[in-house]
Amino acid sequence: MDLTAITTAAPARHTPITRNLMLVIGLLFVVGVLIALMALFSIAARLDAQDLSKTTFYTQRALENRITASKNYIASYANWTTAYDHLNDKVDVQWAYVDQNVGKTLFTIDHYDGVFVIDRQRTKYAIVRGLQVQGEATAYLSTSMASLIEEVQSQESLIEPVSRYTLFEGKPALLTAAAIVPNDERPAVDPKSTSVLIYVDQLNPEKLNTLSADYGLNDLSLTADDGIVPGQPAVALTGTGYSLVSRLERPGHQLLWSLLPPLGGALLILALLTAYFFRYVLRTSGHVDASYTSLDLSNQALEASEERFRAVAEAASDWIWEIDDQHCITYLSGRFSTVTGFSDQQWLGQNIGQLLNCDTTPLSLWLNKLDEEQAVSHLRCSYRDQSGQQRVCRVSARPIQRKGAVLGFRGTASDITDEVAAHAQIQHLSLHDALTGLPNRNKLARYLEDALALKEQSAALTLLMIDLDNFKPINDSLGHPAGDAVLLEVAIRLRECTRDIDLVARLGGDEFVLVLHGMDSHAEIDRFCERLLDSLHQPINYDHHTLHIGASIGIALSRRQGHLPEELIRCADIALYQAKSNGKKTWCYFAAHMNDQIQHRRQLESDLRQAIKNNEFVMHYQPRYHVDGKQIVSVEALLRWQHPVQGLLNPDAFIPLAEQTDLIVPLGRWVLREACETALTWPGAMMVSVNLSPVQFARSDVIEDVREALIQSRLPASRLELEITENVMLIDVDGALATMNALKELGVRLNMDDFGTGYSSLGYLRTYPFDGIKIDKRFIASMSNGSNDRAVVQAIINLGKAMGLTVTAEGVETLEQLDFLISDQCHEVQGFYLSRPVDKYALLPLLKASRDDFPPQGTHL
Ligand code: C2E
Ligand code: CA
Ligand code: CA
């Protein structure tokens, strides 16, 4: 609590403000609830109205459909020559009733309760519930027969039936009637002379139930018109005094019933909680208001009510102090002992400057300044508490005046030790790497800014940018905990190799930066780098694994590359890039020409992106021969870039860049498609070999890419071979194995490319589903120069054969090499001596010549 702030605040206005605020909140709450309820009721009413109109509609529809069906049915009887012949004059009872042509089946099967044949004079034939009866139709029906006959006979088309609602034996029924007319080519009959056939369909409960079920209505029933409740879905059966009604679902009603009780409960709880909250707030505000008021009073009449002031002071959470004009402590509130551990007696009478210390401005100066300005002010001070612990507090003070003279000062001291510590912690986190605790990029930038602030006058700095080799495979294969362990160990070693004045920072991932002081000569820096790399090369033990990592270093010197931090970092980064391309595990100093290389690389990258859009790529093809050097067994597709300025570029000039930028993914897909489609134009079932980059395995769904290419081009999978270097297994051992097995399942062949250049090839060969190996051209090149490479080649050939693999020697440039390979019984050969890579047009004669010499046959061993 800040006493000085309190004493100047306006009192007593809090209560009405708080009350008004709560009134508004309460009002808002009630209005909100009312709006919600109104919305709910309106939704419910709408639902019910929809239900009413829907039910009425379907009741109507049910009746109409029943009438239509009946009309169609009666028409099939009335518009019938045989019926005309047997019913129109004298009714042939034998035909009609005994032979059941218009007889009791109309009741037993079709459920017509009454069937009548009448003419203008009388009822000629009557069946009631399947039994023939004598008598007039009017004895059963409420309808006037004369008007019915009149209506039937005056229909525009005589064959058109009419319908009515009627009472049959006093109960509502549907009546359909039609003139009995012949349906052959006789001359038209006189309408007035026709008899009329009447079918009566009494709406009994059984029929109404079926109707309800058919139309999804509830409990269709008949109700006398005067018994209908308003709002009931009723369809009047005009002329009968009855209506057809059904029960409503009343979804709105159901909604209300299901929602209102829980909603009511929730509202009640909410209201109770709000009421409780209001009471609490009122009470506390009353409390606060009360204390504010009393504090204000005590301030206004300080001299008069010293005691009251003390009471408030004791209750405050910060400690309150008073000093005289000599800055000697005259009063300390009870909180002082609690916070500092000292008793107030220890400090009363002592100068406050001895207790509190401020490192930016002496306390006494600050107080005197307050005196002049007559203002309230804050100062951050520190002190040691009774246990000797450093604590921080924010001190506020205000002069005590009487009749214009300053008698001393009074104020509060708020303990902010935790706040300061938390701030420092946040500060630390924002400047340090969470894993290793080393300074991060932000801290590095600040550090360099400070160290280089004096430009030329600054001490010489050496900036080393370090990137770990082989870190990603460890992280990928053994998981992040292993990666973290490696980074921690590296951090320790870097710290060990440097002095306290040097800075070791982690930029993220496996990139570190060292800033070294006072190393001037290259010789000195070289020695340091040697020692550093040596230390980093030492194996790291992690969970029974012995891990080996290396590092590459790029170096920038402030004396040469200037005093701008970003520039130094950029130069070291470029030098690091150079160090990596020089072959890892080395260091490299920045040199101006590297800038050009980077520039060149950037240009190439942008060209490459453009090239993919502009389709600037072509494939060249190099045949692979049976070791006799005549019969082609497969053709390797090799990518070329027709660069608009630099001409035809070989893959070495752009594949590495494509791999670094993800462009390898679209490029790889294009190569697969192009190679497969071209292979389809070749004579015979010649195989095509496509190179896959290890990066494709990591960045693209290779299985899907290959499948897609096969499906789109319709090339049989058995004609596609994929060449993969063992680097693919370095990136992700298990993932690569799974992918390769899946590729084999597509039916393609797999060849291990550049065999002998990677690590532990033998182990991989056993585990992975390769069909063949290609001995790297370096071994073939040095076969004939007397080195022991011939023995190596021989050993590889034997090993491959023992494993049932097809062995190819690539890079065969001379007859001598070919002869060696023939005598060593290598299976297949490829190289400039036999054929250079050529475009697809030049390839065709080669394929043809090979076919002419040898009829096609399965050549793989
Ligand atoms: P690679 O798979 O080892 O391909 C063989 C390389 O050796 C080809 O170089 C070929 O022209 C060259 N070569 C063939 N016979 C001889 C010879 O007798 N002597 C010598 N000195 N070289 C010979 P190219 O076409 O420049 O390809 C270089 C590398 O680029 C390939 O090495 C392959 O790893 C990669 N590459 C080529 N095309 C593609 C592709 O479509 N996708 C991917 N991912 N990589 C490709
Ligand atoms: Ca290859
Ligand atoms: Ca190769």
What does the model show?
This protein is of the alpha+beta class and 861 residues long. The chain has 5 domains: 2-52 and 250-315, no CATH class; 56-245, Beta-Lactamase, CATH 3.30.450; 319-421, 2-Layer Sandwich (Beta-Lactamase), CATH 3.30.450.20; 432-592, Reverse transcriptase/Diguanylate cyclase domain (Alpha-Beta Plaits, 2-Layer Sandwich); 604-851, EAL domain (TIM Barrel), CATH 3.20.20.450. It has an 8-stranded mixed barrel, surrounded by 5 helices. The longest helix is centred in the N-terminal third of the chain and has 65 residues, at 14-78. It is flat and about 140 Å long.
Distinct small-molecule ligands in the complex: ligand C2E, calcium ion
Separation of termini?
92 Å
Category from helices, strands and their pairing:
alpha+beta
The dominant shape is flat
Q: Averaging pLDDT over every residue, what do you get?
A: 87
CATH homologous superfamily placement of the largest domain: EAL domain
Quaternary state of this entry equals single chain
Number of domains: 5
Provide a compact summary of the structure.
The chain crosses the membrane at residues 21-44. By secondary structure, the chain is an alpha+beta fold. It has 32 helices and 30 strands.
Which features would summarize this protein structure in a list?
22% strand; CHASE4; Beta-Lactamase; flat; disordered C terminus; six-stranded antiparallel β-sheet; binds ligand C2E; alpha+beta; binds calcium ion; disordered N terminus; 861 residues; membrane; eight-stranded mixed barrel; 32 helices
Topology (elements, then pairings):
Layout: H1 3-8, H2 14-78, H3 81-87, H4 93-98, H5 105-108, E1 114-118, E2 123-128, E3 131-132, H6 145-153, E4 162-168, E5 171-179, E6 196-202, H7 205-215, E7 218-224, E8 234-237, E9 242-247, H8 251-300, H9 306-315, E10 319-324, E11 329-332, H10 335-340, H11 344-347, H12 352-355, H13 363-373, E12 377-384, E13 390-402, E14 405-415, H14 417-431, H15 441-451, E15 461-469, H16 471-478, H17 480-497, E16 503-508, E17 511-517, H18 522-537, E18 540-542, E19 545-547, E20 550-557, H19 558-561, H20 565-581, E21 587-589, H21 592-614, E22 617-626, E23 632-643, E24 647-649, H22 655-661, H23 664-679, E25 687-692, H24 694-699, H25 702-713, E26 720-725, H26 727-731, H27 733-746, E27 749-755, H28 761-767, E28 772-775, H29 777-781, H30 789-802, E29 806-809, H31 815-823, E30 828-829, H32 840-853
Parallel strand pairs: 20-21, 23-25, 25-26, 26-27, 27-28, 28-29, 29-30
Antiparallel strand pairs: 1-2, 1-6, 2-3, 4-5, 5-6, 7-9, 8-9, 10-11, 10-14, 12-13, 13-14, 15-17, 15-20, 16-17, 18-19, 22-23, 22-30, 23-24
Helix pairs in contact: 2-8, 8-9, 16-17, 17-18, 23-25, 25-27
Bound molecules: ligand C2E and calcium ion (2 copies).
The site of one calcium ion (CA) has 4 residues, from loops.
